[in-house]
């Protein structure tokens, strides 16, 4: 079994031992995720960012065209409600906002209907001053294990998945594109495992429809595999909690997580016997 030193191997153990160990680690991750969800820092962060609007694909395109380096955008008054103020002279980013009116003009309680769109302007956080926004709880794992990464890339290549190291924007560490994984140079080994998890679990019709569940599965696989090979992955509970998952959701996906983790570990770690 590969370790941090890349040269030491643990004693041989069976597939049954591996399955039991993985189950224990998933349970450990589930408990840690609930602790992370209820931490003061996580609650403050999620409360702040829940006030940001989720923009349509069209408006995201408009924002990126007008302000390619945008990270967090909001309207003038929304920024003020968060203790930040748009600097004088800053130009707003134009997007489209729906015009909703009462279906019955004489009844203020009647259903709202769409009557078109209007141009409104939003501003990126870099265009504002004031109270600092809370930093996200640490979700990155920069630790690298070169030997393990080589074996993971071989694992991916055998399944027709190409791995490319490329500078990614916006702090993104990795992305799974279907038979192609892109990894930022700053990303650790855990990110590669996470994206391989996406490729194995989320490229068919059986994948979860909710993105938070897909992230939960991929990160849980990364956590288990990293634990097996001795990498530090204390940030995984934060990553899962930031995507809105909890212990119950993790345990509800135990079989899928365990099966994928076993598939990766068994092929990489030739110290595991097949005797059950």
Features of the shown structure:
elongated, 3-stranded mixed β-sheet, 276 residues, 2 domains, 8 strands, alpha+beta, single chain, 44% helix, 10 helices, 3-stranded antiparallel β-sheet
Q: How does the SSE layout of this entry go?
A:
Elements: H1 15-37, H2 40-49, H3 57-66, E1 73-75, H4 76-81, E2 84-86, E3 93-102, E4 112-124, E5 128-130, H5 146-158, E6 162-165, E7 174-176, E8 180-183, H6 189-201, H7 211-228, H8 236-242, H9 247-252, H10 254-268
Parallel strand pairs: 6-8
Antiparallel strand pairs: 1-4, 2-5, 3-4, 7-8
Protein model, in words:
The protein has 276 residues and is α+β, with helices and mostly antiparallel strands. The chain folds into two domains: 15-39 and 137-268, no CATH class; 48-130, no CATH class. 44% of the residues lie in helices and 16% in strands. The two termini are 18 Å apart.
Helical percentage: 40-55%
Q: Sheet with the most strands?
A: 3 strands, antiparallel
Mean pLDDT: 90
- Stretches where pLDDT is under 50 for at least 5 consecutive residues are 4-11
The string of secondary-structure elements, in order, is: HHHEHEEEEHEEEHHHHH
Spatial gap, N to C terminus: 18 Å
Q: In DSSP terms, counting alpha (H) and pi (I) runs of 4 or more, how many helices?
A: 10
């Amino acid at each position: 079994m590969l370790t941090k030193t890349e040269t030491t191997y643990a004693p041989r153990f069976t597939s049954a031992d591996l399955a039991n160990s993985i189950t224990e680690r998933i349970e450990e991750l589930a408990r840690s995720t609930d602790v992370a969800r209820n931490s003061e820092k996580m609650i403050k962060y999620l409360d702040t960012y829940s006030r940001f609007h989720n923009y349509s694909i069209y408006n995201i395109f408009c924002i990126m065209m007008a302000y390619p380096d945008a990270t967090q955008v909001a309207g003038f008054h929304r920024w003020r409600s968060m203790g930040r103020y748009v600097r004088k002279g800053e130009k707003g980013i134009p997007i489209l906002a729906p015009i909703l009116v009462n279906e019955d003009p004489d009844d203020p309680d009647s259903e709202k209907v769409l009557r078109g769109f209007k141009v409104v302007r939003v501003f990126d956080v870099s265009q504002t001053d004031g109270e600092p926004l809370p930093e996200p709880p640490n979700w990155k794992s920069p630790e690298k294990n070169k030997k393990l990464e080589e074996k993971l890339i071989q694992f991916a290549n055998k399944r027709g998945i190409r791995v490319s190291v490329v500078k990614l924007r916006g702090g993104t560490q990795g992305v799974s594109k279907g038979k192609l994984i892109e990894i930022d140079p700053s990303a650790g080994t855990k990110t590669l495992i996470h994206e391989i998890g996406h490729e194995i679990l989320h490229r068919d019709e059986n994948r979860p429809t909710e993105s938070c569940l897909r992230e939960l599965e991929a990160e849980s696989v990364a956590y288990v595999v990293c634990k097996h090979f001795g990498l530090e992955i204390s940030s995984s509970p934060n990553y899962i909690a930031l995507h809105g998952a909890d212990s119950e959701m993790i345990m509800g996906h135990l079989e899928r997580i365990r099966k994928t983790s076993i598939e990766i570990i068994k092929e990489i770690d030739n110290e595991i016997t097949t005797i059950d």
